[in-house]
Amino acid sequence: MFFRNLTLFRFSPAVAADLERLAEALPDHALRPAGPMEMSTRGFVSPLGRSAEDLTHIVGSNTMVVAGCEDKLLPAAVVNDEVAKRVQKIVEDEGRKVSGRERKRIKDDALNELLPRAFVRPSRTAAYVDRKSGWVVVDTGSRGAAETVLSQIREALGSFPAVPLAPEESPRVLLTHWVSTGELPAGFTLGDEIELRDPATASGAIARCRRQDLDTDEVREHLRTGKQVYKIGLVYDDRISFVLGEDLVVRKVKFTDVVLDEQADSPESAAAELDANFALMALEYERLLAKLAVLFKLPRPE
């Protein structure tokens, strides 16, 4: 259940108290199956799985939720092919052309017949709110998907003024300085992945390295020619490895054996296992995010 990608938002201490209403607010916004004529539905599901009823899971000051959606799979090619068959039948049977208005009606009829038979694709995105430190942590590397989860929480609560990160230090400049000088902040070491780009033009040169030592003349030569660091692999405190982007999305997060060895042995139940893993994960991310907040000057809203 460990989150592998972290898209982050911040909220004020005043908002934190309102988040205690999540447990009572979410049941009215639970995910329901898509109806025969619906393209999609959205809502919350239990972090404990299909058979559980609770839509939140709380450990300390952290509350986990799982936003779900069910989308009907009805490709445009399938609809267009059905419309073409019906139009062709009219042409052959009645010997006349089909007008644009009639074609639209035929398409609507085809949609109404095909939609109830369409396959449903479910998806789930987990997130948690840290009321003490003012973080929303969404398990996705997609800003759009994270915003969708945030919108669902806002809808459930009536309002939720969480905001994207607003760094006072340029992430790209800072990441580039770390690699070019080898002077990383205390506790951080370089990983084995980097993406460098020429910022002069949108179509500028891009260099990517994976599974490679980054403290090399080859990497520094790219920097001397004007490229800047857009993504960099890092290891924090020998406990977490990740790739940090200039958008401050934390991707490809992995705990090292130092952390995994601290997992509880043979939990009594699924709930107990979730408790233990959630507590461990939230504690590690709390330390990491506090460090990133200092380095990039990420203020918590007042």
Q: Which range does the strand content fall in?
A: 25-35%
Backbone shape: globular
Assembly status: single chain
How many strand units? Answer: 12
What structural class do the secondary elements suggest?
alpha+beta
Mean pLDDT: 92
Q: State Rg.
A: 25 Å
Percent of residues in helices: 25-40%
- Order of helices and strands, N to C? EHHEEEHHEEHEHEEHEEEHH
Number of self-contained structural domains: 3
Number of helices: 9
What profile does the largest beta sheet have?
7 strands, antiparallel
Poorly predicted runs are none
Distance between the termini: 32 Å
Family: Belongs to the RdgC family.
Keywords: Cytoplasm, DNA recombination
GO biological process, one term: DNA recombination
GO molecular function, one term: double-stranded DNA binding
Helix and strand arrangement:
Blueprint: E1 7-10, H1 13-18, H2 22-25, E2 40-45, E3 57-59, E4 62-73, H3 76-94, H4 100-114, E5 119-130, E6 135-138, H5 143-157, E7 163-164, H6 171-181, E8 188-197, E9 206-210, H7 217-224, E10 228-236, E11 240-245, E12 250-255, H8 257-260, H9 270-295
Antiparallel strand pairs: 1-6, 1-7, 2-4, 3-4, 4-5, 5-6, 8-9, 8-10, 10-11, 11-12
Helix pairs in contact: 3-4
Provide key terms for this protein.
12 strands, five-stranded antiparallel β-sheet, seven-stranded antiparallel β-sheet, 302 residues, alpha+beta, 3 domains
Please sum up the structure shown.
With about 300 residues, the chain is an alpha+beta fold.
